[in-house]
Amino acid sequence: MENKVILDRLKALRSVMEKNGIDFYMMPTADFHNSEYVNDYFKVREYFCNFSGSNGTLLVWQEGAGLWTDGRYFIQAEKELSGTSVELFRMLDEGVPTIEEFLKDHMQEGQTLGFDGRVITMTEGKRYERELSVKKVRIAYEKDLAEEIWKDRPAFPAGGVTVLPVEIAGRSVEEKLQDVREKMEKEGAEAFLLSKLDDLMWLFNIRGCDVECNPVAMSYGYITMEEAVLFLQKKAVDEQVRSYLESHHIQLKAYEEIIPFLKSLEEGKSILMDNRHCSYSLYKTLEGKQKLAEKKNPTELLKAVKNPVELANMEKIFLKDSVAVTKFIYWLKKNIGKEEITEISAADYLEQLRRQIPEFLDLSFPTIAGYKANAAMMHYEATPDSFAVLKPEGMLLVDSGGQYLGGTTDVTRTIVLGPISDEIKKHYTLVAAGMLQMTNAKWLYGCSGRNLDIMAREPLWEIGLDYKCGTGHGVGYILNVHEDPQNLRWRFTGGMTEAVIEAGMDVTNEPGVYVEGSHGIRIENVMVAKNGEKNEYGQFMYFDTLTYAPIDLDAIDLKYLSPRQREYLNDYHRRVYEKVSPYLTEEERKWLEEATREV
Predict the structure, then answer these.
(1) Are strands 162-163 and 206-207 parallel, antiparallel or unpaired?
(2) Cα dist. 533→184, 308, 542 in Å?
(3) Do residues 192 and 271 lie in contact, with contact meaning Cβ atoms separated by under 8 Å?
(4) CATH number for the 4-148 domain, one of 3.30.450.20, 3.40.50.300, 3.40.350.10, 2.60.40.420?
(5) Helices (runs of H) and strands (runs of E) counted in the chain
(6) Which of 309-328 are b and which e, b meaning 16 or more Cβ less than 10 Å from the residue's Cβ?
(7) Which residues pair with 252 in a beta bridge?
């Protein structure tokens, strides 16, 4: 069935493209800072094609349109693109061209590629320049064509900014700036242009509310050896924030002044900027006038290694969050089949448990509660118009987390509600085995996630199964639930960052199985890398787990666990009971005792 709303919007867009002399127009999932999640104001791609996933790029031309997205979203994209005339390009699948390859094949010599240069990174913009130069393609980056069409567009985000006390942050803004300047000096940079929002929040010890679930404020930073300038929307800054910035000798300028400010700089400066996050528009403003040192933001690695105060706070918060998750599992198992529970009401119940924690601020991402086949969509989200009613059969996958004054959590449990097949039990057991192997990993310092990823995948690879995503990602501290540069994955593509796992880095551990039309399984904990024994072979390392919630023994088939994996499961469950049981009611405690019994 045709989606007339989207077809009409695409028709209007093609008309505006023709008026502006643009042959191909590209819309990524991004704001002016290349954030992973974006405010509704920036959801231009979704407006023109109906695809709501957090990653994807829409390309429109006069005769057609295509959406490029990754394996997490193939099932979702197929559904949402139905009737829109937009073709799905499954990234990394055999025979599927990249956007650049598609443009090289389909653009005529001298045609124009258009995009809003503020939402395209330096890296991407320069790549399109380079790849399409053979066809003498012109790039038009000055316009957001949606402005002429999207009449009821949400307002530009401008929520209030707050100061994070140093007792919570662990280090002062002066100490952080000193670390950054030391890195700048090593790179021979006179200045550092910072546009990555979570890095800015971390560096200046502030937080905002301009992106759903991410406590960040729209901002830019410009740091020299003597000065620090912070660009914020004036209406988002109250007297307390103004006074805080002044007392720490941080200059405050209006957010929209960033381009005029960069244009006014004396020419010939060596400016460090991260081409993965700085926009193509910022790059074009400085190109030819300044000496650009294209390096990774030094703030990224500094932020990723949590300081002792952050780690101590995280330990407390993760235990409180784990208690909420455990109480939720108990409630769900006790009440399934006795009252109507839906994917939405289950997620709401878990949110209410989190809201009872005094330090709670917000969710860290919209809860994913997927029943049976819905769980096969990795980033499924139930809506008031489309949700499943839970029955005492099958499984419910719940991936959720909270933002707290003291940490950011991310946890997944797949919960048995009633009878499940032997195949599902086999898949669940092997996912648990992989997760527990990763939990107990030991390695020599110098390894990255590429070296460790096989620990989680091995049980699944042995039977010819895999999952189309990494095994783990970094988690922010009262910041974004996905944090670079640390991660666990076997393959790095595009702009993905590979980093050595350092002591103090936290990372998720979340293998899974996703069978379209049948079931999805994921079990996820957050862990922190620690230094272990150091000897003549080097520094050995291990993971310390932060998340303690039961793994569902109703889905474990012991014949698929080795003696060592069984030992890992029993050891983890002993610790779950020790840590969580003191915070439960007597009835809940008795249930947890059984749920964590030795097998």
Answers:
(1) antiparallel
(2) 33, 20, 9
(3) yes
(4) 3.40.350.10
(5) 19, 28
(6) bbbebbeebbbbbbbbbbbb
(7) 230
Task: State the DSSP code for 39.
Answer: -
Cα separation, 268 vs 290, in Å, equals: 5
Beta strands 112-114 and 138-140: pairing type?
parallel
**Taking the domains of the chain in order of start, what are their residue ranges?**
4-148, 162-303, 305-595
Q: What DSSP string describes 266-300?
A: PTT-EEEE-TTTSBHHHHHHHTTTSEEEE---HHH
The first and second tokens of residue 357, run together, are 């924690």
Q: For residue 232, give every residue at least 6 positions away whose Cβ sits within 8 Å of its Cβ, in sequence order, or none.
A: 161, 217, 218, 219, 252, 253, 254, 255
Q: Is the dihedral of CA 513, 401, 121, 453 positive or negative?
A: negative
pLDDT of residue 1: 84
Summarised one tens digit per residue, pLDDT across range 258-271 is 999 999 999 999 99
Q: Which fold, 305-595?
A: Creatine Amidinohydrolase (3.90.230)
Mapped onto helix, strand or coil, the DSSP state of residue 404 is strand
Residue 495: predicted pLDDT: 67
Average pLDDT per consecutive 10 residues, the chain (599 residues; last block may be shorter):
95 98 96 91 97 94 96 90 96 93 96 98 95 95 95 96 98 98 97 98 98 95 98 97 98 98 97 96 96 96 98 98 98 98 98 98 96 92 92 98 98 98 98 98 98 98 96 98 96 83 98 97 98 98 98 98 98 98 98 98
pLDDT in tens, 397-440: 999 999 999 999 999 999 999 999 999 999 999 999 999 999 99
